[in-house]
Specification:
Length: 127
């Protein structure tokens, strides 16, 4: 009997119990598109004259802009507005600024002061 109990105890303690290994949650990758602001900046820098700049702005106006990239686009447009001498290009930039502030999900408070100071420096010419 003692041998039987000894054998039984030995069998119970010699069993290997495997606990299922929990796998770490898989990392989620987020694909991102190139920034619209970077593309616009490159296009405007490539422009050799005001006609080219106006063409790039017209092409840009046809494309949708995500709310998270609007601020960068507005900053680039304001920067280019300072440099531009052609009134038609400046008018298109001002028009784009107005359209971009209406983008769903974008709060224009961060750029209002810059836009106001930029546009208030314009000289008023009678028609």
């Amino acid at each position: 009997m003692a041998a039987h109990l000894k054998k039984r105890v030995y069998e119970e303690f010699s069993k290997v119990v495997q606990i299922p290994h929990e796998e770490a949650p898989a990392k989620k990758l987020r694909l991102s598109k190139p920034s619209k602001s970077a593309a616009l900046h490159i296009d405007l820098c490539k422009a050799t004259n005001s006609t080219d700049a106006l063409q790039y702005l017209l092409q840009f106006a046809r494309k949708p802009v995500e709310a998270e990239s609007v601020e960068g686009v507005v900053r680039i447009l304001l920067e280019h507005y300072y440099k531009e001498t052609d009134n038609s290009v400046r008018l298109k930039i001002a028009s784009l600024l107005g359209l971009l502030t209406k983008t769903q999900g974008f709060v224009p408070d961060c750029i209002v002061d810059d836009a106001i100071s930029t546009l208030s420096n314009e000289s008023k010419t009678p028609f």
